[in-house]
Amino acid sequence: MIEIINAAKQYGNGESATAALKGVSLTVKDGDFTVLLGASGSGKSTLLHIASGLERPTSGSVKYDDLDITKLSEKELTAFRKKKVAVIFQQYYLLPHLNVDKNVKMGADLIGNKDYRSIIEAVGLGCKLNKLPSELSGGEQQRVSIARALAKKPQALFLDEPTGALDEETGRQILDYICRLQKEHGFSMIMVTHNTNIAETADTVIKMNSGKIARQYSNENRKSAYEIGW
């Protein structure tokens, strides 16, 4: 379980200070898929970065079960992120000189996972192990980044606009892969998106506005990526 307790985040000081988060509290249960919605500047990406340990809140706390990660040293926090969380961005961040197999193996090596090729198979790239990123389509590159993240066997997966740069067909395919694997492996998942339709695939939906949670609700019946509008 992830608990965010009265988290605030301020950038800058004095008159130039900007409050990106203003005392946000949120609980994400084990195995829950939570979508964060909101306009640019609403605080959703900041909340994702704080929840994943990429940034520290100015005040408040972030707990994974009984562990308060805001109290960890930088070295301890880095070790925690390596073992417990994975983040997928809109940009793929693949190493261009490494093939599919080696890019994914980078994530697997962080925890000593020798069975990472089953994840590559699961995202439909088993026949492209030796392809370089430049030889793949955008959707295939995103699948490699997903496989690399999942090869860490994370307790929690964080996604920042993973379908934002993709066309509808590829975006649906990627979302379907992510949701299916999340259900199969049971990890918690938090996704930032501008696409309000994607919220219908989640367990919990958080709408952000001006650094605060404006609304929170649950979906009784999650839809698949092929049942929603786009």
Please tag this protein with its features:
230 residues, alpha/beta, 6-stranded mixed β-sheet, 4-stranded antiparallel β-sheet, 6 helices
What does this structure look like?
It is a single chain. With 230 residues, this protein is α/β, with parallel strands linked by helices. It contains 6 helices and 10 strands, in the order βββαββαβαααβαβββ. It has a 6-stranded mixed beta sheet with strand order 6-7-8-3-9-10, with helices on both faces. It is globular, with a radius of gyration of 17 Å. The mean pLDDT is 94.
Would you kindly provide a brief summary of this structure?
The chain is α/β, with parallel strands linked by helices and 230 residues long. A hairpin with a 2-residue loop joins β9 and β10 (212-218).
Low-pLDDT residue spans: none
Assign the structural class, choosing from mainly alpha, mainly beta, alpha/beta, alpha+beta, or little secondary structure.
alpha/beta
Strand order of the largest sheet: 6-7-8-3-9-10
Q: Give me the strand/helix succession.
A: EEEHEEHEHHHEHEEE
Mean pLDDT: 94
Content of β-strand: 25-35%
Helix content: 25-40%
First and last CA, distance: 31 Å
Helices, by number, come to: 6
Number of E-type strands: 10
**Shape call:** globular
Largest sheet entry? 6 strands, mixed
CA radius of gyration is: 17 Å
Oligomer: single chain
Set out the fold topology.
Elements: E1 2-11, E2 18-28, E3 33-37, H1 44-52, E4 59-64, E5 67-68, H2 74-84, E6 85-89, H3 100-109, H4 117-122, H5 138-150, E7 156-160, H6 168-185, E8 188-192, E9 204-209, E10 212-218
